[in-house]
Every structure is written in C-alpha cells, then in structure tokens.
Predict the 3D structure of the following.
Amino acid sequence: MSAHITAFEVENVKRVKAVALDCTGSELTVIGGDNGQGKTSVLDALMWALGGDRFKPTNPVHTGADEAYIKVTLDNGITVERKGVGASLKVTSATGKGGQALLNEFINPFALNLPKFLQATGIEKAKMLLDAFPELGKQLQRLNEEYKKAYDDRLSIGRIADQKAKYAEELPFDMTAPDMPLSGAEMAGRLQAALSLNARNDSLRRDAGRAKETVDACEARQRMTVKRVAELEAALADARSEAAKAFADVERARTSMTAAQATAAQLQDQDTSSISKELEQIDSLNARVRANESKKNAEAEAEQLKHQYAEKTAKIEEIRANRLKLLASVNMPLPDLSIDEAGELIYHGQKWDCMSGSEQLQVGTAICAAMNPKCGFVLLDQLETLDLKTLRTFSEWLASRGLQAIGTRVSTGDECSIIIEDGMVKGEGLEL
C-alpha cells in the first residue's frame, strides 16, 4: 500500500513561524495565502524532512529563531522529525527501523519536487517513465540494438560478397579440367583399355567409311537430278507468274492513268505562306515541344518518387506498429500514455506543451507514483496556475487513483485547506 501524509507540523523554517495541519483522508490539500507569506516554505520543510539534506534550504531557520522543528506523520506508521540546533533526523516506525535509508525505500524524489518533473523536457519525462518500467526500456533498447546489428551485418556481408565476386572474376578457369584429380595407376589402366577399344573402333570405322563413300556417291547423283528437275519446274512457274503479273500490271496502269488524268484536271495549288510562317516560328514551336517533354518527364519522376515515398511510409508505419504493439503490452500509469518515435512523452496523442494544466498534473503525478508505488503523495507549488474547475477535476482524479497531493496556491478562497499569513495559519496563534 502506498504511503500518504496524514499530518505535519512546521516551526521556524524559512518564512514559517508555526504551521500545523491534519490532512487525513484529503486527496488534495491546498495551502493558500498571499505572496511571501510562507506557503512554499511549508513544502520546503516537508521536502527537507522526508528527502534528506539534499533538499535542505540554504538558510533553513527562520530569522530570529534558534532552531527549526518539523514533524511529518505518515499512514504507514512512520513518523519523521527534525529538531534541535542541527535539525537532526529522527525516524520512528512500527518495525523499529529508522533513518533516511528507511525513507528512501518509499519516498520518490520527484514526488517531493514535482515541478522539477513538470519542467523537464518531453524526452526527459519519457526517460523517467521508462525508469519505472525497466523491462520496457530494455525491450526498446534491444530493438534498437537488433536493428543496428542487422544493418551493420548486412553492410559487412555485402562488402565481403563484392570482394569475393571480384576476386573470383579475376581467377582463370579451365573448362576442360576434370572435377577431381586422377592417379597414375588409374590413368595407365584407362589408357590400356582405351587403346584396345580404339583398335577395334578403327577397323569398324574403316568399314563404315567405305560404306558411307558408296552411299555418298549415290546420294550426290540423286541430288543433282532432283535439283535439275526443281530448277526447271521453278523456271516454268516463274515465267507463268510473270506473264500473269504483266497482264494485271497493264490493266492497273491503264486504270491509274485514267484516274490520275481526272484528278490532275481538278487539282489546285496550296498556299504555302502559312507553312513558311510555321517554318519561321520553328524554334519557338520546338521550345514549346521541349517544355511539354520536360513537364511529362517531371511528372513521371514525381510519380516514381511518390511510389518510393509510399514504400518508405509503409516501412515507417510498420516500425510504428511494432512500437505501439510493444508499448501497448505495458500497463502504463495512465491509459493513452505513451512515447512517440522521437522518444518524447505523449498523452492522448498530445505532447506535453499541448496538454491542459490538469492533464500535465495527472501525468506527472501518475508517473511519480509509478516510479515508486510505495509513495502515494506529491508536493506541488503554484497551483494558482489552475482555475477552480481544473483544480476540482485534479482532486477527483487523485481520489480515483488513491493518491494525495499537497500544494500551494496564491489564494485566500474556500478551495484552500489552510491559509498562511505572516508565517502562521491565519486565525491561529503560535501554539500548535
């Protein structure tokens, strides 16, 4: 269960003379008052008491006082006190454990100084969020490392492959060489067998050669006869074809002559002035033609680049989908809280500077709670930046999350839990 502050007492710390408040059950405690009355000094005292000397103010003791006194009571059974000249720390717990080490187990430094978180950059906030989810950070880092390794490996392999291919291309290669080397004994046996076979083959080849010579002579006489017959038949067919063509050509020529004579009688010469004018303007015309070609080429290049852009966009969307899938697998402190591709914190799709004041407080408080779930409270300064409606919304959100906030506000309105005036609770004396 996360720890909440149930009560605190502060005396003689910076501008505070004496302030005490029981905030049991209050999800939002607003310390109001005008400027310079000691509101922020109360938060400084709580930060010092719970966070240790790293939060100690430069001049912690109120002017004119001898020593400071702070007491903070938590609902986990722990009481924290600082008192005496040196403002020594005393931590009392039900388990008997004490000291700053016990407080550090459940006190989140950013919970003591939430404005520091709110003023950080979006990337710094995202890193703080990943600190609360170390496994997510490891997985994102692993994805980045895997990408870099795969890219470097591909580059190295490509270079080696190019070197190997170039080297292989420069080496000679004998297409007649066998795949495996041979032994002398094997070669001698193969030679003897080959000589015997070749002797038998030579005798058969001579017989086959003589038979082939006879066949070749007969075939030669046959071819000469057939060729002569074919030549005579072709010459006759050509002559008949030429005669038929000649008759047809005469008829076509007569028909064409008649048509040409009739057409010539009706011919009128064309005015060449327009053509001459176009000829004079040929440079201008060609310039327009070239301009059209340039436009078409530019359009084609634009279409090609558009296609390439679409491919790159698809790749980016794939990477984004993988990131969203990974982030969706983590139970974030708030729904719709995530980290964009640039490593910046986003909420409801908006970056920090586009969030409302209430959303910023909710995000900051939720992340602080996630960084150390044992710490159920945050300290806030300058709540006057929120209007009353936003302040109520923030209070309702705190209650829904089981969290507590103690903050200051330049106001003396009813929204204030107490009002500080001249270092004291308005209307009360110095006695606590």
In short: The domain at 5-107+372-425 is CATH 3.40.50.300 (Rossmann fold). The mean pLDDT is 81. The chain is about 55% helix and 15% strand. The first helix runs from residue 39 to 51.
